[in-house]
Amino acid sequence: MAVVQAKSISCPNCGGPVTLRGFAHTLSVVCPQCMTVLDASTPEVQILQKFEGKTQTKPTIPLGTRGKLGDTQYEVIGFQVRQVSDGDDAYSWDEYLLFNPYKGYRYFTEYNGHWNFVEVESALPEQSRSAGKLAMRYEGKTYLAFDSMTTSTVYVLGEFPWQVHVGDSASCQDFIAPPFMLSSESTSGETTWSRAEYMTGAQVWQAFKLPGSPPPAYGIFANQPSPHGGSVGSSWQTWLWLNVALAGLVFLFMFLSPGRVAFSDHYAYSQSVKTDSAFVTPTFQLDGRNSNVELSIHTDLDNNWAYFNFALINDQTGQTFDFAREVSYYHDSDGSEGGRNNSVIVPSVPSGQYYLRVEPEMAAGSPYVRYELELRRNVPNYGFFGLAALLLLIPPVWATFRRGSFEAARWRESDYAPSMSSSSSGGDD
Amino acid sequence: MNSPAANCPSCGAPVKFLWSSAVQTTCEFCHSILIRTDVDLKKVGEVADLPPDASPLQIGSEGAYQNKSFVVVGRIIYEYEQGGWNEWHIVYNDGTSGWLADAQLEYDLSWAIPPPAPLPGPNEIRQGQDFQWNGKSFHVTSRTHAHYKGVQGELPFEYWDKSDLLFADLRSTTSDFATIDYSENPPLLFLGRSVEFDELHLKNLREFEGWT
Amino acid sequence: MNTPLFVIYGVLLLGFTGVAEYQGWSWSRVNQQKVLPKSIRDNPGAYRSSYGGYSRYIGGK
Prior knowledge:
heterotrimer; C: 61 residues; 2 helices
């Protein structure tokens, strides 16, 4: 069977040779010597458009380069630069036409170092809404409206299976479901849909074995996948399980630290009595491991304060724990401040025989105060559990914030900010 | 499926039919258009040299769609304002025939079916119109005026040079494809699917220089 | 956040909390003194608390 030959034609403008890598599919081709756009649809090659530009742009991936994507080899046969001007914003991006004689055409787009691999789709998407925003549903995914614009072709190189002209214009709309993007392109009533998948420069360079490094990526692109995306959900799941474990720990210590009352008594103190206010309690037993001791003070203070000095003293070893607590309670028609009770947890008290030394103080002229002291051995310190719960919150909150700020940066470039109703033109801030 | 060979009435070359129900074919050697009568082949015209094209399919290519294998037996080359496409005539292993359109390497399979409801006329069909066929919703995506650029091989009808034809293409959200062919009155309806190259398991394709 | 890192962090945090609870730790400011003379029991007033005199109320209102 005869092998289809690649064609070469002669430019009618400058006479230079023009290779047709796209075989007979190519309908227009740019002469690499004089940059004239030629009509290659008939054997008599006609001039379509003369070159009016000032400078030549060199495509980052040279025409004729081949690369493998998936299990298909493609050749770069065409290149164009397209531009959007929306008032003050003007930005442009590069498009590469990829060709395989069996599988057909694909595209690369490149903007600010962000690459996309694009394929034309024959199935139609369905218009939809997501959280009140315009969206498209396609193949089971919802794509959110990102921007819409009028594009024009400002530079062409290589071959195309259609009649290309510098100045060709199209209305485009982009919808995103990172790492994918659904785009519509409409010219004179007909709409073509295509789907893009985000690629990094490194991936493109590897597929096409290009020398050097790819152009660096600036900013965040519309369908660029979030590096924080999936892990935020799983970090909140982990957080949930850690809190279940924390709850288990709480219940464990409610059982391990029963808080048995080791000593309790009630007293009265009057500031007016002139003898030394200090006194000691009878001894009591503190058993078990080196756990804590909770001393609670319940008073009948009313618009006054009292200050209690304490010393928990081991009768056998003389080891002393020195601490103090103030109790104050004030109230009037506006509200109240403070409380009638207070407590303190004494840490790591070894077991043994103990007694308490108490020395209360009050302001001069205060009425006498009645108070009760209750000493419990081995109580759970809920403050630690509360602190642990707070500290457990830090990683998932931080991850959510990081993802949020990535998405905020993404949507700053969009015509449709997801949380605001105003619209700004696409491009840079 | 093969019929006994016959000879071209114009140049005497042997003519083999891949499809028993073929109505017309072309002679490979002298490009005469031949019609089958009960007795023999009759020359009714000549095809001009076919324009060069780069479709990977050729007469004799084989493939399979959803486990039904087929052979490519003929084609119509269409041309329109923005280019052209090939409409390959394929025959399945049960003797039924269908079409495989190849437009810049985008492939659409279809089969002629009687329209479930009367179709709108050529002046009424508009882009964006909706139709419900076979439980699927179809939307008109394009209206194309085209003409025959040439024919090759076995076709199921007796004409070879139609011009000023209107086609309306329709697509669905699930990759279904349909065409309304206004070359006849009442118009013909073809339903099918858009397919990827890999889905067809094609064999015996053309080779391209530089691509093995 | 890298989930394995978070799990390690969480397990360490819970482990530390468990140890703190078991050992009976507390945030309270408590001064420890070793070996007090036995006479304190008989004369509590002689003991000088490290918290010393607190003769005026420092809080609000």
